[in-house]
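Step 1: inspect the first sequence and its tokens.
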Amino acid sequence: MFSILLDCFILVLFSFTVRVKSQSCDGMSQYDRCSRNSACACFHVPGASNTGICTDRYTVTCSELTSCNHSTNNCSQSDHICVHHPQCRDIPVCYPVPNYNKQFCPPITINTPANAKWIQNGVTVAGGNGEGSATNQLNRPHGLFVDDDQTVVIADLGNDRIIQWKNGNATNGEVVVGGNGRGNGLHQLNRPTDVLIDKVSDSLIICEYGNPRVVRWSRRSDTTQGEILIDNIHCRGLAMDDQRYFYVSDVEKDEVRRYQLGEKNGTLVVGGNGLSQLKERRHLVVDQQQNVYVSDERNNRVMKWTKGAKEGIVVAGGQGRGNALTQLNGPKGLFIDTLGTLYVADSANHRVMRWTQGAKQGTVIVGGNGLGPGANQFNSLDASLLELGTLALPIALIYRGPAACHGCSETIADRLRSKYQIIYVGPKEQLDVNKDTLSMAQLYVQPGGGDLDETWPHVRRYASPLRDYVRNGGRYLGTCLGAYLAGTLPGFDLLPGRGQTDQYITSKGALITSEIDTVVPLYWRGILRHVYFQDGTRLMIDRTAAPAEILAVYTNGEIAAAVQNNGKGRVGMVGPHPEADENDMNYENTFRYLLIICFIIHAINGQTKKITKENVFVGHFSNNKKYAIDDCIPLAFGDFNADKIVDIFCRNTKANSIVVMLNDDRSPTSKVQYIANITGIIYDALAADFDGDSKLDLFIIYKTKSDESFYSGGFLWGDRVKLSDLQPITYSFQTIPTTLDANGDSYVELLGMISNDQINFKPACLIFKNRTVYNVETLNNVDDLFPSSTQATVDLNHDLVADLFLTINHNNKPKFRLYELPITKMTLIVEYDPPDDVAICHLSTFADIDADGELEHILPVCMNFDCSDSRIYVRDNNKWYQLPIDFGKDLRFPSKNEFPPPFDQIPISIKVADYNLDGFPDMVAVMKNSSNGNTVSIILQNRACSDANSGNCTYNRTFAPQIDEIYVLAATNTTLAVFFDVLEDGYPDLLVLQGSSKQNFQLIGFQNSLFQDVHFIKVMVLSTFSCDTCSHQRKLPYGNDQPGQSIKMETITILDGIKDNWIQLSAVQMSQSGQLTLELPYVIIGLGATPNFVEKITVAIPPNSQSNQLIRTYTQMIPNSQIVVVPSPLTNPEKWHSKLFITPSRMILHTGIALSVTLVVLSGVLAILQYREKIEDDRERKVQSQRFHYDAL
């Protein structure tokens, strides 16, 4: 197939892609004439073979020239280039090349006549040996560039490499960049889409869509890695003009920018509104006047932007989709010659067209002979001059006929064209739906249409071949009517078991009850969307018959979109019209092609696993309310206004403001309480009561300039209503510090690498009193702390007394040490190394994951520097154990450079909480899915390890990735995930921070929807200080975050189905802060399904100079309650204050309801009996009265 497909390659190679650079003079000798202007000569460039610059030979004298930088061959002067000029000096010199150089030295060109004829049959010059990774094969080749010696350089997208083919050698190519597997290393590529040659630097400039970035590689044979020119840009096309400006099309932002080499931001040259608005802008070319031409695929036209223009003009097509000479159909690759003649790859019409300047119609120069295998035909519906990757794409058959609504088939084709070759099928198309046509396709699409009963006769005959097609491995996608037809009443019978389809409007609780066209709200993987709706279907999936994946649900819980296995194939159905575009509706919040693309990825790449349980986390809270905060990067948690509800302290995206967001336990909402503006760049904030007034303060870590090598710090003092202005301190920090109670006096200190001269940093502790630095306690016998690592106060020697955990820098490697507190009497307890052969240690965390009453050290690591081998280790009984977690081949920890700022400077951490309240802490981690490039939150559920469920039990517990949490997994571009009790009901919810290509961050919440009757105990330990100004209110001073408080619970519960198990569970409150560890100022301990009283709760605070045993035990605690402990007086635990708040469990509520109903029934029975007794008494009195009268007679 490839030999036929690449017959059209010759068209690209010899006709259109030679990009003339008038300032270069390749293949010429030194001082050769290179222009029509005889004053211009060729000056060779250092480090390049037979490559030079064509410029004015007499513009300067030898005495005016300066030498180039001897190590880099660069010039500091603007408009100067380093060249050889042996008539002046033996070493390279900086020679002026002014902006008007291309006009002064016009190139010697041979113009192609506007009426030139091309040979109609092509020959293969690269590939042609089937799809593969050998050097004589290609796999979805995209952009290409032809050098002056006819060497073809190809962006081989499917093989993640750049391969070049020498002129005259069509047998084998040579890999010149990449080929080292897909990745983001500087030695790797990820789906390169375009490439060009910079003759001056003799380098390749490559567009990587997968990473996304633009990189440059030297063409020297000893080059092993490239350099990043532009980062965070979703580029598809590249071009370079005669002045070495290069142009990049960004498909995410729908724009084209012009860059100078070394420039990061560029100048916008294409983008905006009106005629400057494009759809699916990819291919571009620049002429000698710096005019930019862009193919506007979905609008079927080519646009031109003259230099400096705000809007473009149509220069080809623009007369709607069609095959007339005035029309184009999906234009892609472009070329512009020196006469201004434009050549266009008219992909869907299978032809190449020529449009002269000002022409109203084009001329077919190659192709136009229909789809076919001939040498004068194109065998791809997506052929392109500059992008040939679609030639290797699978085929999608899209029904177009009387059973489809007007425009629906074409709109779906537009959505899928980048991933499939599109062939329309139907009774009036060249091909109809039958066994033979289905055998050539990977996907069949049945779009929306009219009434089911009216359209069924038109497609009835397709039922049998479609059933066979799907069961033998084919993919079926049905939207609206197509989803109805997947059922049987009537339909193609594609759903296994008792699966069926029916009208959504007839379902209970449907928001729409009529057949009028409208928009319907639904939850696509937990995200509320509004979709065009034309009496769409609801899907009744029989999940017992075959594995299925639910993609979207209506607001009443009915299934709106799903994928289900059927035999070897898969069936995808979407009830509404996700393919509808802006012409169909004027709503901003639409799916557009999101649903289709997500579904197709599932349909092609994966097999659905059978869902055996309901999702725990859902995308909406009670009353279908969403929890979302825009422009909020959470830095700390704490109860700012002392209302017993934990609030959130956010940093804005610009990093110059702290926003206090107050939470509401009655509704999943947050409101802005106060905004504090900072002059500088905020990196983190630590919440604590730093001055002992029982009011929450913030310590801000910031930089005054982004290039500073240290952090500054300052206080925002809180008064429960607002924050003060920033009060900086005179000390600086090498890394983000952490909070701790170093001396056991309830005052919060800061620990880190600290300096008073911004040069010499030492491990030290800042002690505050009266809102100033009272003392600096230097840790003299401690090595320097390891950068971006964990420092914590936590009990790891199991005596309930908090110890100091440090990560030190030992020979540029991390080493862990544990010291006894207080800090004035530090004594080393133990030290140990990370696990063997670890490349990267992420932040440590601490939890009692095996519920044995002892905290364990948990360490996420990468075994190699690209994190392709990601693991989590646990240290127990003085030994490291690798947790037997099956991440699969695709999940891994992201590397820092895969995160947007500021997360590219923050180490990765996992967050711990017992979200299912079974007594065993679970985890959540942000991980990268290598198969699709998404960064998502992965819930890791704590389970007992057995060979049956884990295969290799290296530890007694394992953590199972919850891949069925579809609402959480739908939140892509995740940068942070943390457990948080939004409604203060004791059930840990989940907060996820989503980024975007524009680096706007939104904090969204997912509610913990556990329905079983599980129990918990919530413990909060506050500081010893009381609030003098609020004592008359008789309420505890809530909201003072106290780090390092040890908590241990002991009770009898049901464990693994066995009753009367005595368990112990240890926890630590806020063992560390900083670096977005985001630990909560309380501890939630799950009790499982037992309603028993908690036998013991033991609370211990960090030791001080007077006592090492500041411990208090509380007995017989009511489950589903919160205990708040105020350790005052500090040294007398027996007199510590505490208060208990009870949240009735569902069992108690149900019991109360049952008792109430019983009382009502008994009352009713008694009332009836009393009424009947009264009637009987009345009757008896009447009888007695009549008896009296008879006696009288």
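Step 2: inspect the second sequence and its tokens, then contrast the two.
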Amino acid sequence: MLTKILQDQQLPALSPTEFFPLIGKTYLEDEDICVNRLKESLTFDATTSNKIRQETFSLIQDIRSKPDIESSLDALLREYNLSTKEGLVLMCLAEAYLRIPDKASADAFIKDKLTGIDWESHRGNSDKSLVNFATWGLILTGNIIDVNEASGIFKRVCNKLSEPIIRRATYQAMKVMGKQFVLGETIEEALSNGRKLRDKGYTYTFDMLGEAAMTEADAERYFQDYKQALLAVGKESPLPKSPKPSLSIKLSALHSRYNVANKDLVMSELFERVKELALLGKEREVEISIDAEEADRLELSLELFEKLLEVNEIAQWGGLGLVVQGYAKHALPTLIWATLLAKSKKTTIPVRLVKGAYWDTEIKDSQVRGLNNFPLFSRKESTDISYLACAKYLLSPMAQNHIKPQFATHNAQTVTAILNISDMANNPHFEFQRLHGMGEALYNEVMEKRGCSVRIYAPVGKHHDLLPYLVRRLLENGANSSFVHQLVDPEVTIESLVEDPITLLSQYDSIKNPAVIYSDNLYGKRRNSRGLNSNISSTWNPFSEAYEKFLQKNWEASPIIGGKNVVGNPFVESYSPADQKRFVGKVSTATIENVETAITTLQNAWFDWNALGFKARAEIIEKFADLLEESREELIALCSLEAGKTIQDGVDEVREAVDFCRYYAMEARKYQDEILFRSATGERNTLSYSGKGVIACISPWNFPLAIFLGQVVAALVTGNTVLAKPAEATPMIAHRAVELLFEAGLPQSVIALLPGDGKLLGDRFTQDPRVVGVCFTGSTGTAKAINRNLAERDGAIPMLIAETGGQNAMFVDSTALPEQVVHDVLQSAFVSAGQRCSALRVLYLQDEIADRIIELLKGALQDYVVGLPFERKTDVSTVIDERAKAGLMAHIEKLTAAGKLLAQAPESSCQNGFYISPVIFEIDSILELEKEQFGPILHIVRYQRDDLPRLLDEVNRTGYGLTMGIHSRNDTFVNDIVERARIGNFYVNRNQVGAVVGVQPFGGMGLSGTGPKAGGPNYLLRFMSEHSLSINTAAIGGDAALFTQAYAVDEGNQSDHPAKEESSSSK
């Protein structure tokens, strides 16, 4: 449809609602198809292309011929670009320094970042006072620190003086730089500071700093800031050459639950707030633009925008506008939809077209979530093509009288192309926009030559609130490839800046950028698991339809031995922990006799299965991984029903299971060939691997698919037969997984599934000498019981792998960003209702920032939704059973009675499940906790900076050592913790749950497990026996090879590294 619209230059005869699904479909479109369509729509004849090239050349030439063409901010970003160590350090300083509340942490942070950096090389490189001030400040601080490190005498004399000097110099350098990014700390100051450029013909759109409200209190504060800004700007009048300033708002600042899952709140509460702002804007004649944010929220923002235009006063006003990001594949259909909307409402819509500000975030997010697609283009040239194609559409007759175009760009070629497109369309009704502090030279020239209207996007707010905006600007404009830098850099030839993006793109071998890796290929030879984007209609709708169908199904599970379901055992009915009235299915449990039959069957099948070889077994497991992905809606539904997992938890569960399969299959192939060692002449020495025999895999209920299969697949692919004992609470998920294993080609005799009583069955098979090893995940107490059973039996010493619990902590110092901390704490402590062995239990907060983070946590918990796992808006669902709930409630009641309660989420409205609302307590020490509380309970400990060593010793004294989170911008702080804490998995400046297979091998030490780490390169070795074979090849009377070598030309030394030869994989 898009191709036809562009070819015919005619809008489709569709309503906005009928056209809307095309936006989501374009999100998934192949980049090659999308770019080629845009290229065709943008083709110019040779005369026009040459004219644009020549005019761009003249424009840049004229700019460079004038004195003082570079703004202070442009100069700073060019001098300290992000390809240098100094540039990266400067970004780190700017990102964190102004918000650090205590002197000791500030001094340590400066020392950590500035020592050893070559600031001297930047002295005098610029004639801008900002650059030289920052450089001199950093030279000063760096020299003092270095002298202190080198000279004990000087250190004793001036150490006490140097810390305040360093702190003051750095603070001033950061504050001066902050002022370059922010027009004013208040709207009144911004209006005053902007008057000078308004007199020259510029106007402004003000961005009140603030986004991603964590709490409703934050959202209310931002809302009031926007209202005050509208009132202040409303008092301004248009000047002869300068239209009235406008306001830009972010929807994420106006509601703490601005996401697709909470669409009902967005379309009611957020709607009312934006409606009030829009009506105030209409009253005060101040246009409002809704800024673009992440691609996942685009459709939601457009639906909200359409509802706002249903208010007659807003539609008639024509002053509520949209911002569209040109780097997005769905930019053009979004513009067409906006045109259809404006046409249907008989209004005009201001549309600001920007290149886009979240490129790196969108790329990483798509990779991490396994989407194997990007919502945007992977090359800058493609973004420029998209931008110009969108600009051409906005200036075309299709959009005229419906859209008021606003073009935000700092690219001279883009500006010149737009001016030419405007001339050809005979449509001068548009404006340009630039960022405050950037692109002045370009637009001074454009205004002088063409008299264009130019609006400046200017942030307003306190410097310590600058972070999100600052980082985006630094990333966008701090790289060597930024046009802002190249425009004024005399070392960059003008010829390299005037070429059109289609020509530039044609220089590459492919439209897709091979350096931007799709998630399927993220791990090289191993295909990554596929995720689900539940925020885009084109992916969510088909998933939701299939998921809902499987929720209606009833299931059965029974023991499986020799590929057959065991019949004759009594069945018990299973009900969902989320709703005890919801029947899930029937389960037949195994008996002691079944255990005996299963072990005998598995022992008889072992030899042939082991002899099959690693490669053949890996192929079966890889086929199985594909079947898991094909069955994901069914498996996620079953996880929701039987284990109470939310939809996202279910997605993550299936992904982890698939990753285990593909990773272990890839690792197993390494053992297919025997290892040949360098040896003495006349000897042949090799090492090969084989399975051990019958291995029992005992898995938990909290990861009923992923951990169940992680254990089973590791044992199978290494040549063992498996007795699989799933958790009593979740046998139906395990049963379905075994059925899929058979479907993938697994011989039916090599696995036995024995659901049932853990102690009854476990005591029997762990005491059987035919079971050569046990792989267990669960409580430390049960692991010790298994270990005793294995140790007490006669015969060979069996293998035991145990992954158990943890009293997991997170340390947060005062350099951390509170909003990021809160986001990661909520995920770490409460995802999966806190029922992860990696979950955060104790949060250590440095005293200076504890109150702020606790305030944010309290506010965030007020909005938490505790409810059914089948509903998309649920944040936390049920715990597994009544026993788990009773134990957690006893702990909650004990600490509440002791007056330690800080906050608790609202209670669930579901009355028939085992729900516990997330809760936060404040305690004095981790040693107060007698055991791990396996649920949504977080304990906070305040600490002084100097107490860190003692607190780490206390964590070590608990005996647990599974996961630990660290939030700090100080590398020295991080390194000190990593060196001192006895922990298996550290997570820095992120959440501490959800270890990625093959990337973050998972497992603890001490009371948290035996190792080796699951999902790591050493895991499979524990499931195998090693066989060393030494052959005297000279035994038959001489060595022909040696005789031959004596007369051979020396072709170099043989490698000292083991070589591989073809061989069978097993003995």
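Step 3: confirm your contrast with the notes below.
The domain at 537-803 is CATH 3.40.605.10 (Aldehyde Dehydrogenase; Chain A, domain 1). The chain has three domains: 1-48+187-462, 537-803, 809-1016.
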